[in-house]
Every structure is written in structure tokens, then in C-alpha cells.
Design a protein that fits this description.
Layout: E1 6-7, H1 22-30, H2 32-41, E2 45-46, H3 47-53, H4 65-77, H5 84-102
Antiparallel strand pairs: 1-2
């Protein structure tokens, strides 16, 4: 994430229910109180706050964002066409198993 960027949730501003598993995944990362504020208020947080909340795993200086994106794209273009599918399936199975045990 670029150091000057902001991230937020527009669900509440659009009167939409939180979807895409965010209402389950984000509390696991941020905690219930923080995710409630984040999702219900609709306010954006800075890159620094997003990193502190666990929403991003890396901050890149603004001057290096494009170079970093090109670097990552270069790595990914070399992956086999179906290389991500097994990992994606394993991650989804892990969350489904955890959700079933907690639900």
C-alpha cells in the first residue's frame, strides 16, 4: 500500500450489507470493536493505521509504488496459469473449517 493512501469501506455509505466475507474475516484480523467502527462509520484510515490494524502487510513509499507493482507483476506472470488455484482452495478450506467450528 502506498504510504499516502487511505483505505475504507463504502458499504454503510451505500446502505449495503457487508459482503465478501468481510464481516467474518475482518474481526479475526482487527477485533470486533475496531471492525465495527471501520465498517459502520465508513471513514477511511491512513496507510499507517491500516498497517497497525493488520489490513495491509506492506507499505511502499509513494515514489516506489509503480516500480514495486511492476516487480510483483513480473513475479506473478512467471507463475503457471493454474498455480494459484491449489493455494486458494487450501486457504478457503481453512477458513471454512474455522468458521464451521466457531459458528
Amino acid at each position: 500500500m502506498a504510504a499516502s493512501a487511505f483505505v475504507g469501506s463504502g458499504f454503510s455509505r451505500l446502505s449495503l450489507a457487508v459482503e465478501y466475507g468481510l464481516s467474518w474475516h475482518l474481526p479475526q484480523i482487527m477485533g470486533t470493536a475496531r471492525v465495527s467502527d471501520f465498517l459502520l462509520s465508513g471513514h477511511a484510515v491512513s496507510a499507517t493505521e491500516a498497517a497497525e490494524l493488520g489490513l495491509v502487510n506492506q507499505m511502499i513509499t509513494d515514489d516506489d509504488v509503480l516500480d514495486h507493482a511492476v516487480l510483483v507483476a513480473g513475479w506473478m506472470v512467471g507463475f503457471p496459469g493454474t498455480g494459484h488455484h491449489p493455494s486458494d482452495a487450501q486457504i478457503r478450506a481453512l477458513y471454512a473449517d474455522t468458521s464451521a467450528r466457531s459458528g
